[in-house]
Structures are given as C-alpha cells and as structure tokens.
Design a protein that fits this description.
Elements lengths: L25 H11 L3 E2 L1 H28 L4 E2 L1 H10 L52 H10 L3 E2 L1 H28 L38 E2 L1 H11 L4 H15 L5
Helix pairs in contact: 1-2, 1-5, 2-3, 2-5, 2-6, 2-7, 5-6, 6-7
Length: about 260
Amino acid sequence: MTTQPVRPERSRPEAAPPMDVSPFKPSLVKAVFRDVTLMHVSRAAAWAAASVTRTVLTEIIDGARGAAMEEARTKLIPRDLLSAIDRNVELEVGSTWYDHSPTFRGLTGAVYDAEGVLVPSRKRSGSRKPSAVVGAHRFEAGVRKLLRSQGATAVPAMVRDLDGIASAFLTDLARDAAMVVREGGVQRFGTVTLVMPGEPAPPQPHEDSLRDPSVRRGDRRTIGRDDILAAATMQLFDGNLRQRALTEAREAARNTSAD
C-alpha cells in the first residue's frame, strides 16, 4: 500500500489583514468616504482609516472602563464617557457629534436669544447626502464587537454615543484626507504636544512617518495610506494616542496587497 503524498496546506491570501485589525470593515469606511468625496480610496487607505478609528474608540472605551471601575460598575454609561474625555484631552474627537447627543448637552455651550430664552438646537434636515450624524447607526455592529473584545458592556445610550463619535471622527478624517489630496499636502501647520508635568516628552515619530507633510506624492484622484496618516495627525493631538494610531495604521495598511 503506497502512502498518499501530503498535500501542502493552503496559505491564507496575503491581501487580507488579520480579522482583529479593526471591527470597522473597509467597505464601511469607503461608504463614509463616498459621502464626503468622489475620490477613489485605496485598499491600504481604507484599512488605515479603519485601524485609526479602532484605536481611537478602544482608547475611549478603556478610559470609560476605568471610570466605571471606580464606582464598582461593569456596564458603561454615558457619564463614564464624559469622565474619560475630561481626564484625557486626547480623547476629545468626533466633536461634531457632541451637538446632537444628550450626553454632551450643556458642555458645548447653550445659545440664548436677545430675551434670554434658550434657543433649541437646530433640527436635522433631510439632506440628500447622509451626514455623519445620519449615518452613525452604521457603526453599531463594530462598536459592539469592539466592546466585547475589551470585555465591556454598555447601555444603549453609551453605544449610541460611541456610534456617533466613530462616525463623526471617520467623516472628519475623510474630509481632511481629501483636502490633503486636493492641496497636494498638508497646508495647515501647527501642532500641540501634550506633556504631563514630570513626564518626559513623547518619542519622536516613527521613521516611516510623513517626513514632509507639506509635500504629497501621487495622483490627485486617489486617497492613499499616507493621506490617511496625514489626516490623522490633523485630527489627533500630538501624544501617545496619535503615535499608537499611526503605528497601528501603518501595520494594517502594510498587510494589504498593492492596488
């Protein structure tokens, strides 16, 4: 009896990054970008944007968990979100959502008329192109998956806020990335570095970072990985969160095949 030759085990395609790269699928990322621009979004750019969003949401959830633990709670509530942002300014992202969430009411400033009467918030109009607020529900599955991966649970209002922040942040990221492509680089300079008293300054950016953000290479019709990284530097403070988000986004994009 002859032995059958052992068949080589099929290797996974290199084009697909690990499933835990981000709970936000590239198809969802591209749908958000289509709401903002008609430019093509490369595969590497989509994975990078999904990774940056994942990193930011993970940090927010981690901060909220810390606030909940101090009160011996396991389920996250909106108050934990406010505590996390109050303790770490790096988590103040997706701020366009704040005007639409009851959690942040009063924090963005109430508006009064000449008679001292509170002016109600503007009602959402039925625009033809969905905004970040209208499309926030698209992120619920990813947010719930991210919560589970962090061993956390949250009340519906908290999930809704995380949905909205993710949607608003990614929409802002898309707008800035499109601007970088149109203008051929980052034209708005200036950065804020967060350093706590008694702590050393954050490390210098990774050697793979954008050496000269004012100069962009590539065509003016495609949003690439470096455009996402440039947009992330505009959306995030210069601190640990930004550096981690950029590092993880590079790794996520590196695992994709060339377009």
